[in-house]
Design goal:
Helices cover 30% and strands 32% of the residues. It contains 6 helices and 10 strands. It has a single domain, classed as Rossmann fold (3-Layer(aba) Sandwich). It is an alpha/beta fold and 189 residues long. A 7-stranded mixed sheet has the order 5-4-3-6-7-9-8. The chain has a 3-stranded antiparallel sheet with strand order 1-2-10, with no helix packed on it. It is globular and about 50 Å long.
Length: 189
């Protein structure tokens, strides 16, 4: 078994039910990476897996950026494994923003570090922040890749693991989900 999946299961991070994802799609399963991240030993191990894959891909990284909330801690741990700094973006009035005195210097090579990537929406909100500062987003990284893709919009996607979980358009829900209220566990409004 994939070590990341093993740790997700050990930490009770794989949930079943009816979930409304941040993307607006619905799913029978949800990955609550916060349950994995609450264990510092598991979080450090997963971060080292991601950092190793980044190094193996030959990607030069100057800075890790984690979109709030899910990316903050794992971005810090990946940055620690890579020996670079970590910062985070956060929403102000529902717009992804750089605050708290954080700086992204022009021409820096930046990776975005997420807990889960499904559509890349939060990641690309952060790409916009990075580009506005004149830096280069060189990869998207995550604990879990739910997208089924190896790249999104031309950016390489590097994850500790890939998990394929079906998701559904809200206008095309299966019968069992139509009759069950959806839980929205994500952080996006």
């Amino acid at each position: 078994m994939d070590r990341t999946v093993e740790l997700l299961k050990k930490s009770n991070a794989l949930l079943e039910g009816h979930f409304l994802l941040s993307s607006g799609r619905h799913s029978r399963k949800y990955i609550q990476c916060a349950k994995l991240i609450e264990n510092p030993v598991y979080c450090e191990e997963i971060a080292k897996i991601i950092a190793k894959k980044i190094k193996e891909a030959g990607i030069k990284v100057d800075l890790c950026v984690g979109p709030a909330m899910g990316g903050i801690i794992i971005a810090y741990e990946v940055a620690r494994a890579l020996g670079v700094n970590a910062i985070f973006t956060e929403r102000v009035d529902n717009i992804m923003t750089l605050r708290r005195g954080f700086e992204i210097k022009k021409d820096m090579n930046v990776i975005i570090v997420e807990d889960v990537i499904t559509t890349g929406k939060s990641s690309f909100e952060t790409v916009d922040v990075i580009e506005k500062e004149g830096a280069n987003t060189v990869a998207l990284t995550s604990i879990v890749n739910r997208s089924g893709l190896d790249q999104i919009r031309g950016l390489k996607l590097i994850s500790a693991t890939k998990i394929q979980i079906n998701s559904f358009d809200p206008d095309n829900l299966p019968d069992d989900l139509k009759d069950t209220p959806a839980v929205k566990p994500g952080s996006r409004k």
